[in-house]
Structures are given as C-alpha cells and as structure tokens.
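Think of the structure tokens as a kind of shorthand, similar to the way a musician reads notation: each symbol stands for something richer, in this case the local conformation of the backbone. In the example below we present two proteins back to back. Begin with the first one, reading the sequence and then the tokens, and try to describe in your own words what changes along the chain.
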Amino acid sequence: MAQRARRLNPFQFLPSEFFSFRRRKIFQEFSGFGKAIDATLGVSGLPQSATGQASILSGVNAARLLGRHLNGFPNRELRELLSRESVFVKLKQRRLDATFANAYQPEFFKSPLAKHYVSVSTAAVTAAGIPLNDIAAVRAGRAVYQEFTNSYLNARGFSLAVRTPEQAGEVLVNISLRHDFTFYEYFLSDLVGHRKSFDRSLIEVSKLDRLLKGICARFDFKFHTLLVTSDHGNLEDPSTKSHTRNPVPLLAFGHDAHFFTRKVRSLADITPAILEFFER
C-alpha cells in the first residue's frame, strides 16, 4: 500500500516548484527550509481537522487534551481552549496586530447557527475580538475567499473580479504588509482528497503552487517570513478517502525560516514558535 500511495501521490507528478520532492532551487531563491512534522500528536487513530487546527492555533496538544482526534467543528472544550490560548489572543496581549485574511459569505453573519457551528479558525480569531471579513472586503482587496480565484463566489452571483492564483497571492501579500501577523486558511485540497479524485488533486496542487509563487514574487524575505503547513495528511494519498497518519510539511521562507524549522516538530509547536519569534 505504501508503494502504491507513492505512485499515486500528486506531489510526485507535477513540475511543482514548492511541493515537489526536488524543490532545492526555489528554497535557495527565497531562503527556504522544509521538513516533515508530526500531525498524529501522539494519539492513536487518524488525525482530524478540529484537534489538528486547534493544536496549530493554540500551541496545545488538543488531541491529547481530549484523549482523541476530533473532526469538523470544535467542541466546547476546544472553544474554551482557544478563548484562552489562541495565537491571536496571545499576539493581542503582546500589542501586536494580527488578522485573518479569509472572508465569509453574507449567510454566515445572518444565520443564528453560525455562533454554534464555527470552525476552529473562526473561534480562534473571534476570541481575540478580531472582526471577520465579508465579501465587500474581498472586492476591496482586504480579504481573500477560501476559493481564492473568486470563481465560486461569481457562480453564486457576487460579480467579483476573477483572480489568478498568482494575483490572489499578491493580494495576500498586500494584506500582510498592514499587519504583524496574517493567517490564511485553504481547505479545498482537503475536500478533493476526500473525493479520491487524482485529476482534481493535480489541479489543487498546481493552484497552490501558483498561489505561493504569487506570494513569493512580492514578498521581501529580508523582512518577512512565510510559513506553510497542514493540519493532517490527505491529498498525498488518493487511494483513500480518509485522512492519513503521514507527517505533514512545514515549509518556511525568509530570513528567519530556519528558526521555525529548528523549533517545530509537531503541530503543537507552531504557535509557541510564532510567539517566541515575536519576543526575540
């Protein structure tokens, strides 16, 4: 099975600059480092979104806290954890300006269920009192939707400028220049992985590669650092609809990239490394 998974791995098939297994050139160009980090968090079973994301955004091993991996939305215990330990809360306490670059559709703000069925990222951001972006922010270039080309939103009648992945990357850079810390979340790659569509997986890897290319083309890496990671494995093995127990990548670019690849060994190490980075 392991050999079959390697043959199917979409990251092996594309001429990707960022996600190939031979990315030495792009790392040299943007002072980058990469390593595999643990997403299992020392807990049996398959890693899941709620505990993986909570671990990334709190610095606490959320799976060990619950004694299991939790999928989907955070439960009460994880929401309470994020209200205390969210990286956004901690940065605000240090008088640093953090933002969540994603945007929400109007239905989210109108639905009475939105308060109860929020994602980990939404809970982490709102715990710090950071306002959530709407579609007007996307139109003004102050936010990027989770489907970053705006094609999905236009299909729903919003009439926004269509962006290439590279242009979406430029928008994210412009947003980051106005803040000390910017977080952007992308999860269509996870949805494609669950559908076991190898062709769609190739498309998603290519789009993500182009998004990162757009970011790196505009970043001044003497003064900024870019981190890329995932809450669990999935897309790398289209032979299964489930998540995997594989390590996930931590890609870091910029003058301080090596600081993060030295400090981070698992998902729960990311927020502590970010906080230490700002305290140096």
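Once you have a description of the first chain, move to the second and do the same.
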Amino acid sequence: MEDGIQSMAKILITGGAGFIGSHLARKLLDLNNDIIIFDNLDSFYSEELKRKNLESIAPSDKYVFIRGDIRDYTTVCTALDDVQVIIHEAAQPGIRASLEDPMKTHEVNISGTLNVLRAAVANNVKRVVIASSSSVYGDTNELPYTEEEHPQPLSPYGVSKLAGDHYAKVFNEVYGLSTVSLRYFSVYGPRIRPDLVLPIFTKALVHNKKVKIFGDGEQSRDFTYIDDIVDGTLRAMTKNNIDGEIFNIASGERITINKLYTLLGELVDRKITPIHEKEKKGEARHTHANINKARKHLGYKPRYNIKQGLKKFIEWYQDNTFYLS
C-alpha cells in the first residue's frame, strides 16, 4: 500500500462480483487485504458469469461474500464492521439501459450511492473511492476532457454518475468523509461485460459472423485496459491529500470504432465487412481523457496501449469462450 491506508486493511467492494470489482478484489487479496464483496448479482447480465468471476478471484474462504443491494441502507451498514475503505463499483450500467429504464438507473446509481456514503459516515469508514464514468462529459468540442470540463451528460446514466461525483464532494466537505471519484474511460479486458462493443466484435469475428457498427464508425473512444484501471483505483485508495477530488482514469489515447474493428480483425486473422446502422442516441461522439491530474497526484501511468491490451484480451477469450457465448 502507498500513503494513507495501512496494508492488511479491511476493504468492502460494492459490485465486487462484476468485471472491474472482481479484478480489484483479486489484486487486493494478493496484497494481503481482508476483502468483503458486496453484490446483489443483478440479472442485467448473467448471474452465472458473476459467480464465475467470484470463482476466479480466489477460493471462497479467502474473502467474505455478502449478497446485498446498495439500495438497502441497513444491509449496507451491516457489511461495514471494521471496514476502513469502500471501493464503490456497484451500479446499474449501460447508457441504453438507462434510456429504457431511467428510474432503475436513478435508484441504483444515485440513491444507492447516497446510501453507501451515508453508511460510510455512520460507520467511521476512512475513505470511499467511487467509480464514476466518462459518460458525465457528454459531447464537447474540447478534447481531451479535463476534470474541470463543464459536464454535459447525454443520458440518464451520465446524469446519475455526475450526481455521484457531486454527492461524494459534498460528503467530503460537509461530513468530513474522505472521498475520491474516478472517471473511468471504456474499460476492457478479461471478464468484460458481454454486452459491450469489444466482446461483441470479438465474438463475431472469431465465429465468422457479421458485425453491426452503429453510425459511420468514426466515433472514437479512449479504451483503457483493466490492469490500468485497477492500478489507478488502488492509488486513489491509498494516496494522501486527495480528499474530495475527481480524476480521469484512462489510457489518454483514442481510437475510432472502425479502426478498433480492423485491428481486432487483424489480431484474430479475420476480415469481415461490417454492416453500418443508424447511430444510437445518448452516446458521445468522442471520448478522450486528459490524465495529467492523475499522473501528478496519483502517480498514475497507464502501461497498455490498445494493441497490447487487445492481444491480452484475445488470449484470455480464446481460453474462456463461454464468457461471450
């Protein structure tokens, strides 16, 4: 561990059975921390995959698993006995899902986050690290995004993540709770959620299926490999003098969807012409992070460019095709 939190800390990870949460849990166990995984195994995507994520972390006697919902304040409180740090990854993900059911997104991402913060204060937690999103920025002509950018979210999901950022800052200023918000950019890697663009493209190419690209494909994303996300999150968990701050955690590079698809095809030795369909609403045209603040205050330095990260992802997928079946 770094500065502020001692090694062998007791850490609760909300959403710990998910993609990012399970990677964080594995790393924290490797660093000899006591881990509590708090997750409701929501049916937004397969419970079976989440249970496989738990199996991949470690034998079940190495951590405590609590099946619970962050919308239930009492249950959250009961999970916080002697917990020093909360890493808050639980959320209702998905821009499209938020357009279809904005109320659930609100209840989980705003009311649920408020419950986590309230429970942290009531149980003397030392720090809460909140997983935010690049979706707060929306569309802007100013690229790359800095944390000082005026957010203009385009979806209920983006609004909900921005509300979490604001709540975190208020709880730091008003209640003295140490909070840090991390705006993740397009995270990918082993155990990725199967409904995202990268696993959809990979599965189709490997199985010689046609791929749909929404819009002209010239929209771009700042894809960030999971190991870099874990590194940035652990740094935010332990650094001093960052209370109430917001950081972009990203690769700092961007690639168009067309180029991503072409690169994936080269790596799996497939060349299939995609089908272009009407662009979806609610998504930004481009995302690109300025990561200077994270470099300066967290010592964050991404290790994977897109080609390196995709190679590692494909190697994993070839041994774990059931994740995207």
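Compare your description with these statements about the second chain. The mean pLDDT is 92.
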